[in-house]
Write the structure tokens for this entry.
Amino acid sequence: MAKENKDNIMVFFDFDNTITTTDVIDDMLARFSKDDEWKALEERWQREEIGSRECLKGQIEGIRIDKDKLDEYLSTISIDPYFKRLLKLFKSRGIPALIVSDNFDYMVRSVLKSNDITDIEVYCNRTDLSGDKLNPSFPYANKKCGDCANCKKTHLLAKKRDGVSTVYIGDGRSDVCASRVSDVVFAKDYLKELFKKEGRPHIAIDSLKDVYEHYVRRL
Ligand SMILES: [Mg+2]
């Protein structure tokens, strides 16, 4: 593992089930989809017949929820209490931290705002609301790279500077490519199991408390 100190790291956080304590998109699909088409899309994606962008686009377009209901729902989402502690720690040491997410701007910003977090860079997918429909768009898809919705690896490589170690904290399939090019990986759930199976170096975590405890002693 690369040697870490406060002068040479930058930190990338996944959002769903890393910062939040549940996967918000998965939960929204189960609660608010107009029918079961989202499950069929999920199965096609897991069989690798379609990419995650096509899957997510179809799934989000199948949600029916108006703005009031969505706002009410988003106000119930809780975040890992150690996220704010980590941000405070990184800020006090001058360490850049940002979010790369396969969720959508409206949802991510709303959850962050209700937790009084307004000053962090976020790279995610976008969605407009019209009536009870969500119209997704994917400004950070990288068609040269693959079929992901938001190409997290592109952000990581674009932000990385010479001599700086990238730290990635995530849990899911959309974190795999970015994690594979990161210097230090904190992995939870699916990502942890995959890295374990592939014999890739990582720090296994159950929550952001483990990340906080790792850094509070080192930085
Ligand atoms: Mg996630």
